Amino acid sequence: MQTIDDLIAGPGVAGKRVFVRADLNVPMSDGLITDDGRIRAVLPTIVKLVEADAKVIVASHLGRPKGEPDPKFSLLQAAERLAELLGKPVAFAQDTVGPAAHDAVNGLEPGQVAVIENLRFNAGETSKDDAERGEFADQLAALADLYVGDGFGAVHRKHASVYDLPARLPHAVGLLIGTEVGVLKRLTEDVERPYVVVLGGAKVSDKLAVIDNLLGKADRILVGGGMMFTFLAAQGHQVGTSLLQEDQIAVVKEYLARAEREGVEFVLPVDARVSATFPDLKTKAPVDDVEVVGVDAMPAGKMGLDVGPKTEELFAAKLADARTVFWNGPMGVFEHPAFADGTSAVAKGLLDSDAFTVVGGGDSAAAVRLLGFDETKFGHISTGGGASLEYLEGKTLPGLAALEK
Ligand SMILES: Nc1ncnc2c1ncn2[C@@H]1O[C@H](COP(=O)(O)OP(=O)(O)OP(=O)(O)O)[C@@H](O)[C@H]1O
Ligand SMILES: O=C(O)[C@H](O)COP(=O)(O)O
């Protein structure tokens, strides 16, 4: 892959419009950024381009808007945070490829930075139709002379700005993707065993799919978070009103059977913290009906929002002898203190082991920091959850393939 240094030495970036596809999909609460890790992660690339006198256009998605503008998912806050971190003004365009974006880009002097509005405010960004995506990529290409791919968290998405745009402009890989791939590669090559994978989080259908491949690679798979309920349902348990991917129960049963045949250990929670309602993450108001129940006694009207204390002990024991751990997805709704213990227990388990530890995912990385853990104590904190999982599966990721061409 061509690097930024190659771009600087080759076509040169000074005075050129360089489109940086970042992943600024930061966790937000009440309109405020709760963790800016993903913005900090892409800073080295932006600073390098600024210092080389490029006109830098930063683009990203935020959340999952429905292909049209939705103020809830504006990148304005992220642009403001980027300006603070850079210590210099950042222009913000209120559209993505319209007149505001063109004005913002035309107004850039060498060494200046603009952020354009959420790429997913345009249906073409995520379209499954090649022509529709291509049309949007053409509009994006009109804004820039060169392309730098550095949104590691989104490289597994075949989206216009990730996959189609680099085919239209001279392109290079950014510093963040370079680092991420370097570390993750280590987990696909000479991995030290036992190799334990911990999975949780809320993007259940996305992440269930990766288990198929992980079964051939990991020695032990620990499952918590929103994902655990599909497993518990597959074992015949009632899961009340918990997050459940009903259409995947049969698939999960097959995973469990295959794991047994192939000697891969699945470790499922034995207890859970439940409540009748989802907690208020804005006010963090205390939840007065939290109960710890065995997984065979989940009450019908309650939802599981964290693993329970016995599971915390079990998971800690299963992490203790690991030599390599990859963890994606919080064990519970860690954003509320009543449901953060499971996630803290796994973070502590990783730190107490002698394993090489990789934590992947926007929310998982944020959880580690927000719960007060020192991120420098982990082997690597990846900005990509789904992206790192798919990389570890050995899949060709559209965003990396496009940069290789
Ligand atoms: N039992 C649960 N029920 C509902 N939501 C849950 C549960 N456990 C965890 N979550 C939620 O999962 C979310 C994070 O999941 P997600 O799959 O997005 O992980 P991630 O680390 O961000 O990975 P990615 O980078 O792929 O998005 C958190 O906001 C957390 O509140
Ligand atoms: O949070 C993530 O994993 C990335 O930003 C990708 O977001 P997506 O899952 O909405 O495509």
TrEMBL record:
It is found in: Cytoplasm. PROSITE patterns: PGLYCERATE_KINASE. Keywords: ATP-binding, Cytoplasm, Glycolysis, Kinase, Nucleotide-binding, Transferase. (2R)-3-phosphoglycerate binds at R38, R120, R157. It is an enzyme of class 2 (transferase). Substrate binds at D23, L24, N25, R38, H61, L62, G63, R64, R120, R157. GO terms for cellular component: cytosol. ATP binds at K207, G304, E335, G361, G362, D363, S364. It comes from the Bacteria. PANTHER family: PHOSPHOGLYCERATE KINASE, PHOSPHOGLYCERATE KINASE 1, CHLOROPLASTIC-RELATED. HAMAP family: Phosphoglyc_kinase (MF_00145). Monomer. Belongs to the phosphoglycerate kinase family. This is Phosphoglycerate kinase. It comes from Streptacidiphilus jiangxiensis.
